[in-house]
Structures are given as structure tokens and as C-alpha cells.
């Protein structure tokens, strides 16, 4: 067992490298992410959380930087730790890592397992990133409609959390499927009146104009008039785009 002071220092170094790897993975700077994650994963397992999270980043960075063997090794190491832990977060994270080094139906099954398990946890960032990875995989498989669903959810979640780098990655992937997504900005949201924002949220939740009107005690015609203004202000063309553009985070 290490000296306690050395362990604290090691944890600090590992946490710093992990944070750098997360940032670089979000920005698509995978070589830098790989270097940081590899350094973060150099320390022994006694370092706990930062070490395990560095392995997670290492898998993604290694895959994206063309190091499949290293990615597979890190995924196996992560899975061994997950089996010992047995928590939904650990097993879900492991499934997501193994999905990235798998192909075809096996990869899809693992992505779905990751999303299912992580959906039972409160670690929303990990869930959102799993949605992003699955959506990216679906797009590469030319399943654009399926990809849009998961990329849209990922974009919404990541934007809400302020994870701008990953949100932008999701936005670019959505664009690659043919979906037009405006960057979420405070300025765009600020231009909506309180009633416009309320109507937009309800429309994004799938309510029809008559249903929205009944809730707000206004006519369907008035709802439509407000929605046209929402579309113009947010730069969208249909109500199907509201949930991913407005993200239901305005009040």
C-alpha cells in the first residue's frame, strides 16, 4: 500500500489527467485525449474513481485515434472492475466501452444495455454521452432516422448540463444526418416571451394546438400565431425541431 501522501498526490494527478481527457474527447482532439487518459490510467486501482473514469476516456480516445488494440485492452480492464462493483453505473459504463470495440449486432446490444443501465442511475452525463456514442454509431451504420432520435436526446441533455463541447459534437452529428439544428444560445432563448416559451415547451412535448390552447385558455389560432413567432426566433421550420432546439430549459 502506498504512503497516504503519495496516494493523495497520485489521485490529484489522475483526476487532472481525467478532466483533460474528458475535455479533449468532447472537442474531438483524440490524440490529446488519449495521452491524458493514458497518463490517468497509469496509476494503480487503489486510486479508485479517477482511475476508473480515466479508463472510460481511454477507450473512447483510443478508438477514435486508431488504437483498437489499446481500446480493447482498456475495455476489458474496465469490465473486470465493473463485474466486481456490480452497480448499474459500472456495468453500464463497461457495456458502453465494450460497444465501442465491437461491431454489428453485438455493438448495438451493448449500446442498448449501457443506455438501459445508466438510465437507472442519476449520472446523467454518462447517460447522455452513451446516447451520443450510440447515435454516432447508428449514423455510421447509415441508420439516419434512428441516429437522429438518440443524437437529439443527447444534444438536449448535454446542452442542459452545459457540456458545450459534447453538445456541439451531437449537433454536428445531427447535421450529418440531414437534420438542421441551430446552436443553443442564451440570446435565442431570451428573445422568447414567457408565453412563447411555454407554448414551445408544450408543442415540443407533443401537444396539439387545441390541447395547448385548452391548457392556456387561448384559441388554437392564437397558439399557431405564437408558434410561427417561435419558429422565426429559433430559426427552425417545424414543431418537430422544438425539443432539440429549445431543449425545454427556458422558463
Give a quick summary of the entry.
With 251 residues, the protein is an all-alpha fold. It has 14 helices and no strands. The longest helix has 24 residues, at 4-27.
Write a structural description.
This protein has 2 domains: 4-176, Alpha Horseshoe (Serine Threonine Protein Phosphatase 5, Tetratricopeptide repeat), CATH 1.25.40.10; 186-245, Arc Repressor Mutant, subunit A (Orthogonal Bundle), CATH 1.10.10. It contains 14 helices and no strands. The termini are far apart. The protein has 251 residues and is an all-alpha fold. Helices cover 75% and strands 0% of the residues. The radius of gyration is 21 Å and the shape is elongated. The model has no long low-confidence stretch (mean pLDDT 85). α1 runs antiparallel to α2 (30-40).
Which properties best describe this structure?
single chain, elongated, WH-like_DNA-bd_sf, Tscrpt_reg_LuxR_C, DNA binding, 2 domains, 0% strand, 14 helices, Serine Threonine Protein Phosphatase 5, Tetratricopeptide repeat, Regulatory protein, luxR family, transcription regulation, mainly alpha
Rg calculated over all Cα atoms = 21 Å
What would CATH call the class of the largest domain? Mainly Alpha
Low-confidence stretches: none
Shape descriptor = elongated
Percent helix range = over 70%
CATH architecture of the largest domain: Alpha Horseshoe
Structural class: mainly alpha
Strand content: under 5%
- End-to-end CA span: 52 Å
- CATH topology tier name of the largest domain: Serine Threonine Protein Phosphatase 5, Tetratricopeptide repeat
The chain-level mean pLDDT equals 85
The count of domains is 2
Task: Name the CATH homologous superfamily of the largest domain.
Answer: Tetratricopeptide repeat domain
Provide the succession of SSEs: HHHHHHHHHHHHHH
Q: Work out the number of β strands.
A: 0
The helix count comes to: 14
The major sheet is characterized as: none
Amino acid at each position: 500500500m502506498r504512503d497516504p501522501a503519495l496516494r493523495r498526490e497520485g489521485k490529484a494527478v489522475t483526476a487532472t489527467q481525467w478532466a483533460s481527457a474528458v475535455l479533449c474527447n468532447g472537442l474531438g482532439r483524440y490524440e490529446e485525449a488519449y495521452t491524458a487518459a493514458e497518463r490517468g490510467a497509469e496509476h494503480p486501482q487503489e486510486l479508485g474513481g479517477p482511475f476508473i473514469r480515466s479508463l472510460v476516456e481511454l477507450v473512447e480516445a483510443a478508438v477514435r485515434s486508431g488504437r483498437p488494440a489499446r481500446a480493447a485492452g482498456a475495455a476489458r480492464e474496465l469490465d473486470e472492475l465493473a463485474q466486481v462493483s456490480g452497480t448499474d453505473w459500472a456495468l453500464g459504463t463497461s457495456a458502453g466501452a465494450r460497444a465501442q470495440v465491437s461491431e454489428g449486432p453485438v455493438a448495438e446490444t451493448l449500446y442498448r444495455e449501457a443506455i438501459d443501465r445508466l438510465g437507472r442511475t442519476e449520472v446523467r452525463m454518462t447517460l447522455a454521452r452513451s446516447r451520443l456514442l450510440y447515435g454516432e454509431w447508428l449514423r455510421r451504420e447509415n441508420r439516419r432516422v434512428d441516429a437522429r432520435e438518440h443524437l437529439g436526446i443527447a444534444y438536449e441533455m448535454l446542452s442542459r448540463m452545459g457540456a458545450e463541447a459534447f453538445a456541439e459534437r451531437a449537433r454536428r452529428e445531427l447535421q450529418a444526418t440531414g437534420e438542421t439544428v441551430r446552436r443553443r444560445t442564451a440570446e435565442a432563448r431570451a428573445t422568447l416571451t414567457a408565453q412563447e416559451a411555454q407554448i414551445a415547451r408544450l408543442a415540443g412535448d407533443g401537444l396539439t394546438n387545441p390541447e395547448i390552447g385548452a391548457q392556456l385558455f387561448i384559441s388554437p389560432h392564437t397558439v399557431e400565431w405564437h408558434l410561427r413567432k417561435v419558429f422565426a426566433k429559433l430559426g427552425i421550420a417545424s414543431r418537430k425541431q422544438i425539443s432539440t432546439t429549445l431543449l425545454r430549459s427556458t422558463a
